[in-house]
Fold these 4 entries.
Entry 1:
Amino acid sequence: MVSRSKLVLFDTGIIIQSFRLGIWDALVSHYHIITSEIVVEEAKFFMDENNIRHPIELLPYVASKAIQVEDVSLSELKVFKNTHDPVYF
Amino acid sequence: MNIGGRLKALRDAFGWTLSDVESRTNIGLSSLSDFENGKREPMLSHLKKLAEVYQKPISFFLETGVSKEPVLLWRKKPEPSKAAQLEAKFVKLCRQYKNLEVWTKNPKMSEFDQLFVAGYPKEYNDVRKLACDTCKRMDLGSRPGESLFRVLEEVYAVKIFNLDLKSEGSSACIYTEDYGPAIMLNRESVQWRRNFDLAHELFHLITWKARADVKDPGFLESKDEKCANYFASVLLMPEEPLKEAVESYLNEKKEITFADLDSVARQFGVSLEALFWRIHYVYGTAAEQIEKWIAASKMFNGGPLRKSDAPGDLPERYKNLALTALMEGLMSSRQFANYLDINPADVYSYQKLGKSDGIKIKTGTF
């Protein structure tokens, strides 16, 4: 595997688009991707140009540690809330 | 109140067991119990699922003070646990609608404040005058049933949702400084019933600030409801246009059939029964006679020949604001999916739709 230099944080929309564009595996091989538990649960399908659904299977990538999945504790969330604009909630 | 207390209070209000929450969130029973008892704190992924089932923002669980929930005025309140679930869903939708308005800087015109009355109407004559004044002020025309919904939603930025109340409730309304005016209608009701409920709730909204001098702001007395019904009747069926319509059907003997009266009811977007009671007030027909006519006319009232539209899950204005926010980068695709209650994968088809709208017209060229 090519050495993965950059650390990137991916949200649901980015992962879905990556699968739709067929570039997900390339991204995984070039970047150290971190995402959250919530995103793994949400990114289940992508739609192609003909509005046909295709499944997204992220669990194999998680199991093989190709992507890193994190969750946030309540205390970390409180710190974020106290230091950022309430609009994020 | 800490997070465990808030979780328990919500579960009790919704009438759910821990098993009910487990089946809705896929969070294990022991974890749920530990969260409520304060033995363990939920992670963000747990909190997000709990926030979704309880229809609360995540920030709600991070607050420690006593939460003050907005008070809804119900026309016919469902049993307590069902009411708690519906109120939570309704308030969440209002919050989201307000966010969309703020992000897209819309409405550019919102004149609802001008509709508030200074004092609560004391007599039916005051209610009648209020209805006539409101109809004129809102410029609803001679058939207000046709325009009321659109004018309330698009001009006065009233948030109107059609929710699944089944047979357990008909309508409710709320006004808060945070969300503005909002109305909940029953999606299962026929169109002419929803029209009447809309006008009924409008009365409660425009008298909302005047309710400080009424016994209890969250409580509707029987006379409040009668006033609201009378207001709705006068607003939807203004006297002169109504008389003109009724009298256009009279034969040489000054008679009118039930079928013709049903046509008049359709014109004004009301039920035949509502029309009869309006006739009682406009023509002074005795109540006993009206009741006999209502009983005899049952076959015409909302029968198979009169079609009702099925309202959408979300208001058109709400969906358009959400699409605008998505296309202008004011909300993420995931948030858009949450707001429209769709799968994140389905956002792509909306993004394709929004791409076609880039036309701007300069005033002065038409």
Entry 2:
Amino acid sequence: MKKVLFDGPVEPQFIADCIAKHAAKKDIGAHSIFLGQVRADTLEGKQVRAIEYTAYDEMAEKQFRSIREAAFGLFGLSCLHVVHSVGMVPAGELSLFVFASSPHRRACVSAAHYVVEQIKEKVPVFGRELLEDGTFAWKKNN
Amino acid sequence: MKKEDLTAIVLSGGRSSRMGRDKGLMPLGASTLAGRALKTASQVAGAVMLIANKGGYEDFGYPVYADLYPQNGPAGGIHSGLVHSTTEQNLVLACDMPLLSVPLLKHLSEQVNGDHEITAPVHLGEVQPLCAFYVRHLVQFLEEFIRSGKRRLNDLLRERKTRYVPIDSSLPFYAPGLFTNVNTTVDLAAVESTDAAKVKVLFFGRLAEITRRRELELQLQVPGTLDRLTDVLAGRFPALKNEVFTVAINQAIAATGASLREGDEVALLPPYAGG
């Protein structure tokens, strides 16, 4: 399986190319795509300019693999692709790409939702928010 | 032999000339040399006593006696121990052999019988009188032995009914270092390093900032547990006590009370921010 962690933001063109590649898979009837974007939150009056992601690489890849296996087991998927950014991702750009495909719509919608929730809960990725004044604040999922 | 029929006499009365400081009180892992010997002894003997000629041994919680005939080396210590013992059989243990194990002592105790006055192990051709069983009635003979100027324990063993028990690799608990003797701080360091499990600790996110490290190698006293490791880390990096984190061992979230082995990779993980 390909590595999930990817250096830098996910480029929109990459997403478009991924969709185009799946035209060849004739058994697919639906795709569900989730995109995580860095939001320009305001923390103590300061705007978030970017998030710098770091990860416990080996364990993160292991967790991604097991989430993928679970998703295939739980839902009737044809395909699943996940890309998560590491490094600096500016506000407004994409840090997570989940692309699930299935013959019928319900499976891929449920699977995409499942995968995103599992990633937030199980994958050791850490984030520092870079604020407009150049300082950093550690981010926590909720 | 039943535990209640055995007294352990832990000897820590030596001059420790090469160590520079009282050998028995030298730290070993989370304890001291004497502490380790006492802990081992208390697992096989119902009564335990310490023979020491300097202060500092009162806090172990065992009776401490001095040599009645000082400056006579271990023979004086054994004599003093036998005087204070209330049991027939007595296990004499030197505090400077930290790798003596409970299975070894149990094996030796099984070889003790009424035909012999002393039961001592032999390892690689060397007799080990300071990990041996002595009957109490030897106290009289020992007194004469000392007063006649004799001190060498091997002579004592030769003059009495001694059973020699070979200790070799045919025994399930055998380890070549069982009788390792610690005389210098270098010896002690060598024992500590064989006695410890080396683990790699990884810090992430905020924790790496606080400790100013991404990774650290630690020697953890065997048997090592996660709780012990977190205690050691909190001792070294007090700011960690205020932090919330989960722990992974070899890339899987660890259960509380998990034990650690040589070569384990332990990761301290602050709250996730992925997705």
Entry 3:
Amino acid sequence: MFPDGKILKVNLSERKIEKEVLPASIYRLYPGGSALGLYLISRDMNPKVDALSPENNLIFSVSPLTGLPISGLSRVTVTTKSPLTDTIGDSQAGGFFPVSLKGNGWDSIQITGKADSPCYLFIDGDNIEIKDASSLWGKVTGDTEKLIKKSLGREDLDICEIGQGGENQVKYASIMNMCNRANGRNGTGAVMGSKNLKAIVLVKTSGRRPKNMVKFTELTKNFQNRLAANEGVAGLGKYGTSGDTLTFSDSGWLPTRNWQRGNFPEGAENIDGGTMYDTVLKERDTCFACGVRCKRVVEIEGKVDPLYGGPEYETVGTMGSYCGITSLETVCIANQLCNMYGLDTISCGATISFAMECFESGLLTLEDTGGIDLSFGNDKALIKVIELIAKGEGIGKLLALGSARAAEVIGGNASEYVMAVKKQEMPAHMPQWKPGMGIVYAVNPFGADHQSSEHDPFVVMPEDSEIRKRLAKVGFNRDYQDQFQLDDDKVRFAFDTQCFFSITDTLNLCQFVWGPSWELYGPEDLVELCKYGLGWDTSLFELMRIGERRINMMRQFNAVNGFTKTDDKLPKRLFKSFVGGPEDGIKLDEQEFTRALEKYYEIAGWDSQSGNPTKGTLRKLSLEWMVDLGEEKLKSTEEIKQKVMN
Amino acid sequence: MQVTVNGSERILEEEYSLRMLLSDLGLKNMVIVFLNGSKLKVSEYDILTLSEGDSLQIIKPVGGG
């Protein structure tokens, strides 16, 4: 039986707290996480509002599954209009905060308005208070959590907070929880800062009991055997996500010096997860009920505090190879600073690497940088600039805008050095090697994202492999000899796995544990999880529809803001061949890519001229209430609500 | 005997199985193996013995994170 949803609505301008019960008949269409956030923001907010205005909604959502005692089930989605991309904003984080949000009885917190002075939200079940945070404003995330616990006289709290990055509305500011789990992408922290909201504090709760404990246990029993048999996930646990950095570099697919190369021989081994394991790794941390324990915790005496966790692959890439940094210590310090100040490590590192290329080409001078030598490989410069970005000082003020807006200010040919899609900097996976993923980088509604579809190498697995058997369940059953082709089947693979990943972002599942191919649990397990965990007798068909619905909601939100297929562009650099090294000759073929994009729009059921969802596709997905969203500029939320309920 | 693995020569004992080679490389079944240009099935990983002059391409697919 699918439950009703419980929404906590907080208006910070009026200091008003309300509660909404979302009937199960509606909640089941948007069952948590990203989809629930999208439903609420599309229903209740004019999509054209300014991202940093009080009207923007900031929504934290979990799912009906959150808190069940199984690996990979503690994640929270933040939905808002992104100040970085001006599209819909979407970001997930793990830890224990999500479980406590659900445990306090809430599926979603929908925050509107702007407090007249810094505040934080305190939640203890139905007891909700807006408390003064003036003494916390200006504090780093670690001090924020300590001071809140001290002032409330209790340690049993789960807290998410912003640092100076969010307070100063850096376009890619993040929201942190535990000081080392990040709702990193899309600048959600800047939105929180624009509302004068410093933190959300939850009284810690425990998890939940499954609906059918006996059957549920079938999924969790022999967990260690399941983990040991899955070398991909087991490897994540030991060496973390950066355990393949050296392999990537040797293969030519590690973005280096702002994507000028794919090979970083002078530094890849130093910053690899294996080196981290042998040197600075203090311990492996985990999220609620998760046996994978993939989180890094590093310590460098006097320099890096274990409180701030440790760098993942993306940070190793963006603060390491992107910037030509060969020192693991520097990468760890950079990671710590981003977690202290609340900055997305991907956009921050990528923006600095953009600036480094501008500096080396003469577009930025020492006068512009305030005397900082922003050459690639300058460790001190990297650390200094992160501080300046967080504080909005010196060159940091410009770079806080992100690389795309900074390029507009710098002028000249700076835009050629921007490695972003829809103004969001690209993660450290190269579309030249993974063209199907590249399609999703281009079309993804909130900018380039590497966790929105399955990656190309898995299509080459033998057909009798467990990976291919799982992929067949989501519609892919074609044998490839290599990962480079971008034919119809590959585009379908990109779209269908995008729908599956969209399910995991809706149900708030960890994508290392739950996925369509190499992950610990596959599609058939997900159906059982819903049935025995929640009593929700669903099917893969219903779930894939939910995933597709979410993608279309995002795309329609963007359409109202004037986005079309002309915004689905990859940087020109990706279409030029590398010369030399293991990446010699590798590039994306521009004509083939353009053809593949057109096929994607057809497969997705989107208009060939605009690249946006057709009315037919929206109706197919029960989104008829969004059909006229673009034409209802000032439609009252009551009228839209009526449309939805009918 | 001599075989080539990902472009590099490797000396192995006679009667060396593919499974033993994969184990040397720290790999199990989440791996793609081309033997003399033909992609192998996973079911062949446990039954194949390598021969002099064999050329192998061994690829470990990696996703996102």
Entry 4:
Amino acid sequence: MHGWRGRVLRINLTTGTLKEEKLDPKVARDYIGGRGLGIYYLNREMDPLVDPFSPENMMIMAVGPLTGTRAPTGSRYMIMTKSPLTGSLTCSNSGGKFPKEMKKSGFDAFIFTGRSEKPVYLWVDNGKYELRPAGHFWGKTVNETTDILNGETVPEAKVACIGPAGERLVLFAAVMNDKDRAAARSGVGAVMGSKNLKAVVVHGQGDVPVYDEAGFKELRTGALHKFQEANKNSPPVLRMYGTSYGVASNQKIGTLPTKNFQQGTWEKWEKVSAQTMVDNFLEKPKYCSDCPIGCGRGTRVKDPEFEGEGEGPEYETIYALGTDCLNDNLAALIKANYICNDLGIDTISMGSTIACAMELYDRGYLPEKDIGQPLKWGDAKAIVEFARKTGYREGFGDVLAQGSYRMAERYGHPELAMVSKKQDLAGYDPRGVQGLGLAYATSPIGASHMRAQTAYFEVFGVPTIVDPQKWEGKPRLVKIHQDMASVLDSTGVCYFFAIRYYVRPVLEVTPEGFCNFLNAATGAGYTIEEVEKTGERIFNAERQFMVKAGFSRKDDTLPDRLVKDPMPEGPAKGLVVHLDEMLNEYYKLRGWDKNGIPTKEKLKELGLA
Amino acid sequence: MKVHVHLFAYLVKYAPEGRSDFSIELQPGACVRDLIGHLGIPPAEKKIILVNGRHSGEDTVLNEGDEIVFMTQVEGG
């Protein structure tokens, strides 16, 4: 096989046995790889009703056929499992250098089942594989663990691991790779911790074979040329500022989540803006494998109180640990970000959970004696301290580690957790970005802005602006983008490049580029229609898992605040999310019944019945 | 009439005195296109236009005290 390695590795952590298995070419073709391959195995081999921390939960790391082929931004992988935070499936995505190395090591997927009696790590080196003891560094941070493992294997190996947070089953613990990149959402790190799996280390040599070398090279050169052309007058804004540009974009249209989504604008927004970050903390841009953009932020904080260095913050981190908590201290915010990276914690859920605690405290529902100290809005030192305490489940950190929903429920006010399916919303208030509201509510993994990043056309004007305040017309666009994102997450390339160069840059995002690159890499001979259908298949296969796990329309929700309380101020004043209207239209377009369940006809059409 | 303008990212180079946000005097009844011409932003430069926080086109007529924001096309994750 080309593009694909044609092999998956099965790791039974209970028995300690490893077995490699051929990847069925028909499965590869029908599900592409990455996210698609993950849901294929999850649906086929696990019971969606199992406890996420039980040995019966499967965890799959999967790369795509374009990962590691030198396709521009072919640097991504997915982790798929049942989430302890949401109870739904999750697909958590990360970039950096690990995914390409995993592909080079010889496999399309690692499939973990069971639970190891003692801490172990998986070492895969050029097609050879073994489980090794990890007890002697269980408890170490992500940075320490990565250095130890490079010492125990080879310096060129790439490491994905959990920190203390995953070991302690923090419900939003991340799996970190290359120290600072995160498969962050939904507690995938906690699942790894529950299996006593500390790390996965990979190393490979030689290029990933592609089917049509000349054709592939031409496509690659063409895409990179288009990118250079588009940026010939000024460097890419993403390289200059990173994603933190989102602070200004949201502030100016009144959708910047502020004070646990109580407001949509903040008069102190410039204290945590992209410009402030660049002027005071940026050292250099950082690049994933084969990426020309360089959106990563290599930063450093010199202030002795919050001293540190590493990668980040991303926009989502600035919203969650900054504007959402009324924290205007960017140095402290970046320090909290470094702590989350080193302990292995999702910054979005961390910040949103602290913001929720601040509101519970503010309203007198959460007593000070439970926290051990005051927790006022904007307390920068407390944010840094509680990020650390959450990672170690110390003191009130043990409550925060349950996530915003379970904490708010414990104190009698679950409606104050800004979540969908118990996972925290991202940095766009959907009252002013209606399409994203529908995307949050219907994302298979709980609230996520990346399972259809409609902010591209609702906020950032890519390819063109569509009025974010209007809900009409959004169900159709959300469906199209969700299906496209399912393809994207299965091929192993990055959204930031794909949205302009792997799809035709129109609102209907025709997957022309995906088709061309996939065919040159694999020889599979896809048509555009087949690729589109594959995206729809993957999304519906995920919905099948969710239905078996007990999910339906009753779970496709948004917090009451966003559906019932009109935005109180700013350019989006007076708006609520028109979720019911959008859901009705969306289910029809999807071929699902009024309860959000795929019909037999739809499943048959997609080969899923 | 006086309007407030905010230029982001590399559009700052079109700011009259180099400051990214500033006030400017325009003829009454001026529209966004007139402002773009006044600042010297080339028509081909891709930009997002906000008038008082709402996405607008170049034909939008401006009023006293309006806030006009020019942003580059970007993305966020």
